[in-house]
Amino acid sequence: MKDKNGNRMVMHIVSLVLGIISILTALFWYMSIPTGIVATVFGVKSYKQTGSKLGLAGMITGIVGLALTVFIYILLVIILILQNGGF
User: Could you give the number of structural domains in the chain?
Assistant: First the structure.
């Protein structure tokens, strides 16, 4: 993930792409959670090393993808509990 100058030029782009994939696949936890975690980690590393705004965007989209996935599945559990008559 280094270019010929030795800078990490690809990590922030990968972070942003994985963050977007994490948001788009929020209904599929087995895809959204790993891509969201990797996007967040790559975004933090890229932002700390280079100060890249794409790294920051990748970190934010990864976090949003993870939060959206968790929110959807918590909402599904609440709906299922309420349909079955509560606790």
Answer: 1
